[in-house]
Amino acid sequence: MANLPIVQFEEKILETVEQHPVVVLIGETGSGKSTQLSQMLHRRGYTKSGIIGVTQPRRVAAVSVARRVAQELDVPLGEEVGYAIRFEDRTSERTRIKYLTDGVMLRESLANPELNEYSVIILDEAHERSLNTDILLGLMKRLVKRPASNLKVLITSATLDGDKVSKFFSNCPVMTVPGKLYPVEILYSKERPKSYLETSLKTALDIHIKEPEGDVLIFMTGQDDIEKLVSKLEEKIRSLEEGSCMDAIILPLHGSLPPEMQVRVFSPPPPNCRRIIVATNIAETSLTVDGVVYVIDSGYVKQRQYNPSTGMYSLDVVQISKVQANQRAGRAGRTRPGKCYRLYPSTVYHDDFLDVTVPEIQRSSLAGTVLYLKSLDLADIDILKFDFLDSPSSESLEDALKQLYLIDAIDENGLITKVGRTMAELPLEPSLSRTLMAANEYGCLSQALTVAAMLSAETTLLPGRSKNTEKKRKHNHVDLPDGSGWGDHIQLLQIFECWHRTNYDIDWCKDNGLQVRGMKFVKDVRKQLSQIMQKIAKGPLDVETSRRWEESQHNYLNLRKALCTGYANQLAERMVYHNGYRTLGFKPQVVQVHPSSVLKPDDDGKLPEYVLYHELIATSRPYLRSVCSVDIKWVTPIIEKVNKLNVIKLSGGINHIEEGTEGINSNLPKKEVVVAGVPDKPDDRIQAARERFLARKGKK
DNA sequence: GAGCACTGC
């Protein structure tokens, strides 16, 4: 602890904090800011008047940093020093230093908007610009402005643009503490490679043959590329002449690897053996691999972004920012001086790369965020004018208002409704929280709770799709229910009910190719949601999972109706001549049901006329993921509501769209997005469908 | 008939 750089600055930091309500502290990796800052303030007596709260964007970080601070202060974890993350509150009345995720802090602020149990709030890792931290930045600005506020706010980050944040907080002081990184030599390519996969392969082999020992970390964009590169590397290394160089083990590292595979990167290599780790940007911040001396940086990252005019997400490979490039390079200098091979010229770095990554708030659907802000009842505030460090586009905010209106969370004047208030209490996206409320009315709450919980975990349910698990899964999947033809939401419900009937047998999950961790997570979420619903209802509700099979043997009418209420903004209509769909409520998009869906066509081969979808995402083409068949009778009133919608009124009477602005997310890395042009009037649509049909026939 | 980076309440 004594040799951490930040310790030398203790007096100066404390002096600055005493004189200013907000201080920005820039500390590079290894400065000790996450563990030392809270202790310094504690020593200076800031814990006498309240708690010191430190937010983290990630759960593991909150836990591990709290554990270390408790150790350094020699107190049991959960007493003076504690942490709070979802499903796990290890704090007590004695807790004075509390580490928590930014999401938990937002929940606390909902219950207690003044956050007055805190004397100091530290927003750590603010440079990552997580959606939650960005909202907290805006809230902190309001809190310190209160006349009698004693609250101290510290914003700490590795590479944040200090001047920008300082300006945001009325020119607060910015302090810089050095880090403890070793120098990293940056080597640029002469030009962009034709195939960054081949170039990575060649560079890695060069390093392995010529350079002294030390592990290699390669940044790729996704699982596919990682698997290809891993097998090519294995092949090449095997063919190297025996004894010509040291041994090597190749390790893939990405989010869909099972945890036991991920932790392999933490065990040191056998002697005289080099590790080559091929990773996604999970290794940029989330996981720190020791022993890395060489970094190979492709310069790309796979990023998810939202288009508010089409309601569509896309997953694009885009250039990284300068901040990300430097973060990647820094991974080579943790244990000794290192080298970073950038597979792009320095002109690309300087001229093409954005300075900072586009913050998440400008890449996401904001319905949940806007609902949250509305429910805080911030005095005299127009949501479209909320003071964000980087404001989302007005189009994105208006899209959020539209969504909220269609699911009754706000009224036609943009004011939050009683329904909306209850929805904000639930840790779910608005479509699902609205579904729960409707389900409660229709008497199918327990089923809806299960669906909501399953959807919250969906991506962690199925194991990674590597070649050999694929066959195994297909084989075992015959035993899993199929949604009785109604679609994926129903299938998810049936799967959980099956598991429930086995008394939550772990082997059943394994036998059916479901990730045990994911299923346990579903159980936890479901329990949490049930408790919140009971609390809101101020009395017992029927939240028990059905045990009897026959209860599920009807057509899930009420559940599908409840889902339709919640997904009023995510409906699609089938095309006349084929099984493609056209989205309703947005600029219409022609989309396909994802092939993995269990939705069944009827005897004529036709899919249902109307479906709701959980997600619309463009990968190789635009796909509806997780769909459920709905009745036209439920859809008609929603379409009427869409047609009557008045965005100007919703935004509080003022039209915020300025003429001539570039529109949505104009600062996003550019990528051509192909949007199918669909005529709006039904007659035209039929005509267009016929033309496409004939065109396709003609081709054959 | 395709397959998705990473977080979080």
UniProtKB/TrEMBL annotation:
InterPro entries in the record: AAA+_ATPase, AAA_22, DEAD-box_helicase_OB_fold, DNA/RNA_helicase_DEAH_CS, HA2_WH, Helicase-assoc_dom, Helicase_ATP-bd, Helicase_C-like
Tagged with keyword ATP-binding: yes
SMART domains per the UniProt record, alphabetical: AAA (SM00382), DEXDc (SM00487), HA2 (SM00847), HELICc (SM00490)
Any single Gene Ontology cellular-component annotation: spliceosomal complex
Superkingdom of source: Eukaryota
Helicase ATP-binding domain boundaries: 14-178
Gene3D superfamilies attached to this UniProt entry: 1.20.120.1080, P-loop containing nucleotide triphosphate hydrolases
Positions of the Helicase C-terminal domain: 200-377
Annotated keywords: ATP-binding, Helicase, Hydrolase, mRNA processing, mRNA splicing, Nucleotide-binding, Spliceosome
Catalyzed reaction equations: ATP + H2O = ADP + phosphate + H(+)
Keyword Mitochondrion: no
GO molecular function: ATP binding; ATP hydrolysis activity; RNA binding; RNA helicase activity
Enzyme nomenclature, EC number: 3.6.4.13
Pfam families (UniProt xref): AAA_22, HA2_C, Helicase_C, OB_NTP_bind, WHD_HA2
Protein name listed in UniProt: RNA helicase
Organism: Ziziphus jujuba (Chinese jujube)
